Sequence to fold (794 residues):
Amino acid sequence: MKKLALIRRLSQVFFLSLFTYMLWVTPHAALFFKIDPLISIFSLFSLIMLGATLIIGRFFCGWVCPLGTIIDACGIKAKNRNTGFLRKVKYYVLGVIVIFAFLGIQIAWIFDPLVITARFISLNFIPSFTLAMDKAFIFLIKSLNFYAPLYDFYRMLKLSVLGTKIFYFPHSFITVSFFVIICGLALITKRFWCRILCPLGAIYALTARFCLLRRHVDKCIHCMTCSINCRMSAIKEDSSYRKEECILCMDCVYDCPDLATKFSWPRKNTGRQAEGSISRKDFLFLIASSFLLLGFKSKEALDAAKKLIRPPGVLNKREFLNKCVRCGNCMRICPTNGLQPAIFESGFSGIWTPHLIPEIGYCEYNCNSCGNVCPAAAIPKLSLADKKKQILGIAIIDKNICIAWLENKECIVCEEHCPVPQKAIKSNDEFFNGKRVPKPYVDISLCVGCGICQNKCPTRPARAIKVLP
Amino acid sequence: MNKESIFESLPKREITRKGFVKLCGIGAGTLAMNNALLKFAFGQDNVSTGRTVKKIKGLHDLVAIKGDDPYAITVKAVEALGGMDKFVKKNSVVLIKPNIGWDRSPEQAGNTNPYVVGALVDMCFKAGAKRVNIFDNTCNESKRCYENSGIEKIAKGKGANVYFVDDWNVVKAKFSYKSPMEGWPIYRDALECDTFINAPVLKHHGLTGLTISMKNLMGICSGNRGLIHFDIGTKLAHLTDFIKPDLTVIDAYRVLARNGPSGGDLKDVLDMKTIITGSDPVLCDSYAAKLMGKEPLSFSYIEQAVKLNLGNADILKADILTITA
Fold:
């Protein structure tokens, strides 16, 4: 009976499912980022998490972290190797992130495990899963002429799990490969990412060095089973262990042939404390290494960042790049699928930040969801009335494409769809062969740049009206 | 040395002419089968020549009713026309096509009044309908439109099937005469129903002047709908001929008089508190146009519909009953 290990597995599955569920169905996924000290260090929840780590240890990594669960699953058949001093790398990663934070540049988004998982689930897993489900249903319904009950069920699913729209993200290949590489590292050795790279793990490791709950071995026979099997390579050859590396997976309790291993509260004479992990030399090396990445502050990158249409309420685009953690929550919640991850359009520092592509989807006038789900307040939380006043860009009509201007045809679809109550697109009537042809023009003082005109413009391949940021 | 050893470990296979042809054959065969399978699975677009219906006439050509309660006056109007039993047979499938085009509240008058739709659903079930379907191809994001218009909640509460359109479930329109709508994808459910009730809202529209019942039929069209706007009069007339709505119930309870069809400003909304019903879509549209103080034949789609002989646009010749509740 591996009771504790079983409970740990259940806990992992539970939290992974909860995380997916929150991203999929509810707009409250930002709550999960509140317990993440790497992203919101000053939130009450992350302080509670750090406090709990101070008492129990790195339980988050072994019992809660959704990425850890996936990595565990990937590495289930992998060999276990001793990674030795490589475990220090994660402190460098954390150190670089912290130093950059003091310099005013936020790069936690590259390495934060919750962000990586959320991005994968929102931008890859949910779209592909719903697409496959949708196609399967269409196949069954159409080919078998199964119109009555199955079709009703399908329509019901569209209200909940499937959603009214199958989301699509171009370049999702990059997101998925990043995720696959991180999980695939587990094939080299179990929990490769958690041992060596994860900066959140480093924060918890630094805290867990002082934790109260400890591993004890009575009358060790030096069979080395626990040391070989430890997924974090935390157990040394003399059966003592590095406390900050232990994620409380409880495997060693059951691996021990004599059942001599126990986790318990401190007794007297507990022997040696956990040894220090970072020396002065390491620290100097860390400071030196962090300057390698100063390319982040280059001027071209910031200029490029201004070329995109950002979500409503984002005024300072430089500040936006620093606040955004690239979790993909806003792109998941955007009802029109218009918010898309930028790749290199705004330079390397803008990778995966959301921007609006009106030809895929426009900014819904009555909607402020993206601001409500942002865990880092990069997109400000706005009331609906305030959001309607936010200006994303200005629409411009290209008279060489517009069929009303070029071919004197009746159209003004843009005017029809313009959501501004006073209509930011107006038209002048002209008469051709006794027919009224309204010619549209944009009233710049009213246009909010939502992009619905570009989205609905019927000209192909290029749209006659475009929103410029 | 190393490189050679890697290549040597691969299984050796010589390529012959016969083998090559065989390989190409297998490849082409697989592709063709794959294509056939995909076509079988996803590629069935049927062709339809439109609904075939018997023209049902009410007791009057048109009933217009004025009153304070949208639900009550809708019921009264349809009763004055002869009751819903005249239009809906027992165990039949009914489609109610309201205007749910915009993410707007009922007060902003961008969509059909939810109580008008609710009254129609109740009457259909009372007349013995087996199933009442409600859908619209929305302009804004569909889920938000269905929710904020209030139609989904009220109609679902009364037992109707309110669902979103599926762009794969369409048929292609076929006309017996030359039409610009030839081949346009139309949602299958709009054709596979026994009774088609068109429930538009009367409001201003930039291109056509007013959007009433014939313009409301654009909601059953899939595809790049913006293109319908070119030569819209002819296209709407042909679409009306294709669908032949059995009953038209125009909601003029709240009327958006300016900045339509989406609106949004409550100052643009007039309280007209009127419901117009009739079995002739052209007459209904003409009456609604007259109500707004416009000449019916000045609207291109009414003009084209009269040319096609779809209905009567001359209000003076029609048998019209006006009631004030």
